[in-house]
Specification:
- By secondary structure, the protein is mostly beta strands.
- The protein has strands at residues 3-12, 22-24, 35-51, 58-61, 64-75, 86-89, 92-94, 101-103, 109-113, 116-118, 122-124, 130-134, 138-140, 151-153, 159-162, 166-168.
- It contains no helices and 16 strands.
- The protein has a 16-stranded parallel β-sheet that branches.
- The radius of gyration is 15 Å and the shape is globular.
- The model has no long low-confidence stretch (mean pLDDT 87).
């Protein structure tokens, strides 16, 4: 059955190592994975969004995901039966703690549509994984104080696709 979380409000953690925010997925193999998370905000966790096995067809709509210790979003290597069609529509993904958006699981497919990714590195190390930033999205580093790579794509056959979007370096001297 589909799961919809709408207007949960703002969920704050204590920025404590080992305390994760939203867990996406399900231990049950027959879980159908039709999850919509809409108009919600998640802040100040170790892994702000953590993927488990059977993470698929999850839609984030008009959400804010911000301020992590280890990761803003983490799809760890080796999780089973995961990665099909994870989308962020009209969302803001941001961090000032240097916590990345990490896709380490193989064959994950993530799309940003009309979303902003601010001060957040994309790390794509899962083989065959793809992250697509499209549809008037914005990838930017406002108020950046230090150099960092906007994206690191190291997985065999992994891809980062940016189309119909902007990539903005606000402090060119540090980049």
């Amino acid at each position: 059955f589909p799961v919809t979380i709408n207007r949960l409000g703002k969920v704050f953690g204590g920025l404590t190592t080992g305390v994760n925010g939203l867990l996406v997925g399900n231990d049950t193999y027959d879980y159908n994975g039709q999850t919509i998370i809409q108009n919600c905000s998640f802040f100040r966790f170790d892994n702000v969004v953590l993927c488990a096995k059977n993470t698929w067809r999850t839609k984030f709509i008009a959400c804010t995901i911000s301020t992590g210790i280890s990761n803003i979003f983490y799809a760890p290597s080796g999780i089973l039966n995961s990665g099909e069609s994870i989308t962020f529509s009209d969302c803001q993904i941001s961090d000032s703690n240097n916590a990345p958006f990490t896709v380490a699981c193989s064959n994950f497919a993530i799309g940003f549509i009309g979303s902003s990714v601010l001060n957040t590195r994309l790390v794509i190390s899962g083989s065959g994984s793809v992250v697509s930033i499209e549809g008037m999205s914005n990838f930017e580093n406002p108020n950046a104080k230090n150099y960092y790579r906007f994206a690191e794509v190291t997985g065999a056959g992994a891809r980062l696709i940016i189309s119909y979007s902007t990539v903005v370096c606000n402090t060119p001297a540090i980049q």
